[in-house]
Please model this.
Amino acid sequence: MYGRKVKLRFFYILLILTTLVLTIFLILKSLEQNVIYFQSPSEIKNISEIDNKKLRVGGMVKKDSILINSEEINFIITDLKNEINVIYSGVVPNLFEEGKGVVAEGYLKDRNFFMAIKILAKHDENYMPPEVKAALEEK
Model:
């Protein structure tokens, strides 16, 4: 019915499409394992079960909640409805302070306790690094 050239061309197109679909599937599947979900303290209070997945908790650092000792920093992240206690060992960003936005990456121990392995401080669109601000003020 169809000639040999047409059958061969159809086979190659089908092979390319199958390879493309398989490649996209494998890329999305591998990304699924590396995705870190961002959740607020209110969303954490509503989860059904606590698993050992890495996630990010974001919100504001509650006023008068930062306690610094020699080995770790304890603070509370709030979304103004619910709160979660965070413990972090390491160096915090310069923008980290009470009343400012923060994202903590780590593992949830229970609905009220979060063990952070990384702290990311958030800033607004008007933020300017201190070095740049000082240079502009000199001029």
Observations:
- Residues 4-34 form the longest helix (31 residues).
- The chain has a mean pLDDT of 85.
- The two ends are 82 Å apart (CA to CA).
